Each structure stands twice: as C-alpha cells, then as structure tokens.
Amino acid sequence: MSDDRRHRGAHPEDAELFAPAWHSRLRSATSDLSWLLTRQYATPSALKVVGDRYGLTVRQRTAVMRSACSDEARAVRLAREVTLPAVGNQPIWIDGYNVLTTVEAALAGGVVIVGRDGCWRDMASMHGTWRRVDETPIALAKIGEALARSGAIDVTWYLDSPVSNSGRLKGVILEVARTRAWAWQVEVVPDPDKVLIASRNVVTASADSVVLDGCETWVSLARAVVTELPTVWRVDMADDAPLLM
C-alpha cells in the first residue's frame, strides 16, 4: 500500500499522550531514567522500570528515552555546544534527516520534545524510506534562512544512503539551495553518524545523542529554527533543560 500522507505531523494519539495532564509524570520519568543512566544502568532495562512505574505507553517511553541522558553526557554535550550565531564562517555539517524531520514535524503541528540536554527533538520516524511532505521545501527554506543569518557559508548536508529516496531528497535540497543562491553541498553516505563523529574543526548540527557524545562541537540547528515559528507544540520533558539561543 502506498504512503500518501502529506504531513509529518502529530500521531493520532499524541493529543492524549502529551496532554498537560501528563507533563509532570513525563518529566519525573525523564529525571528517573537519567538518574539510572548516570549510575550506568542499561537503557532497555532502566526504561522498562521507569515506564512501568509511571504507566507509560510505548510512544511515551520513546519520548522519555529521547529526552533523558546521564549527568556526564549532559555535561559533555553542554560543554561542546555553540549557539548558531557563534558558528559564523566555520564549516557546518548537517545531520540531514535528524534536523529536517524535526522542523517538518514542528511546521505540521507535531509534538516537539525538549530534552535534558536542551535539544529539541521530534517524534517522527523514517521507517527506512524518505517521503516528501508539504512542509519539506518550507522547512529547508527556514533552515537556510537561519544559516544565512548566522553567516554560515560552508554548509554540507549528510544523508543516509540506506534510507530509500535519499538521492531524491538530495535533489530537493540542492534545488532549494540553487533558487536561494546558497552554496550547499549534499553527501549521501552509508553512515552519517560516523562521518559527523569523526569531524574536526567543524560544527555539527544534530540532536542525535550518539553524534553529540562523539563530535567535537555541535549546534542545535533544529531548535534555532523551530523557536522562530509562530506556534510550536512543545513539551518540556526535563525541568533542568538548559537553552542556548
């Protein structure tokens, strides 16, 4: 069956799962999971304990997992973070799907969760295939405008070759860049995470925890873009989440 959805917005159950009545419980669950991760408990078992304790659904557990991190990981990530205006003319490498889907989801009215490390993340999933949605060109334009305001001139997007239609997305990105005279490059590689982690003297734009824990310097590009939107469905998952703008 073909997938003809036109938006990367909210899941049908999100209005209930992320309603204000749940916020306190979700923040407590994120705090508890972070406490366990700090003490080196394995993520799967720790998440089950926390999820069972607070009566969370699978989707809510995913949100908690994406929002939690150990004290050490939080400290390391914050120490390596820079603001978008501080990027200036430094090269910036973008974790393509990671950044784009968050902006697309926010534009489509999907829930955006704020993690303990200050990153803003979406609840969308690719399922191994990229599909264009109505918000794709708008999201790319808004990302480009934010980069242009920061003074970034050396921009490279990295896309996962195992994800179907990555070549098609590359074409869309380059077309948007061409119409706006942005000198972007797009690389389709087997594992962008490895490339981004190995980068040096480059600012990485991602909210992927694996990347953030391994890269040299990073910027929350999705957050910088989404904060400029007039309306955003944002759920703060951690009371102590910092925020660099």
Task: Describe the fold and architecture.
The protein has 12 helices and 8 strands. The chain is globular. It is α/β, with parallel strands linked by helices. It has helices at residues 14-17, 20-38, 43-54, 58-67, 71-80, 84-87, 96-107, 136-150, 166-180, 192-198, 209-214, 221-226; strands at residues 92-95, 111-114, 120-122, 155-160, 184-189, 203-205, 217-219, 233-236. The mean pLDDT is 93. The strands form 2 sheets. It has a 5-stranded parallel β-sheet, sandwiched between helices. Strands 3-2-8 form a 3-stranded mixed β-sheet. The chain folds into 2 domains: 14-68; 73-236, no CATH class. α2 (20-38) crosses α4 (58-67), α3 (43-54) packs across α4 and α7 packs across α8 (136-150). The longest helix has 19 residues, at 20-38.
The beta-strand count equals 8
Total count of helical runs of at least 4 residues: 12
Gap from first CA to last CA: 42 Å
Largest sheet: 5 strands, parallel
Overall pLDDT: 93
Q: What topology, given as strand order, has the largest sheet?
A: 5-4-1-6-7
Helix content: 40-55%
Low-confidence stretches: none
| Shape assignment | globular
Number of domains: 2
C-alpha-based Rg, rounded: 17 Å
Q: Which range does the strand content fall in?
A: 5-15%
Order of helices and strands: HHHHHHEHEEHEHEHEHEHE
Structural class: alpha/beta
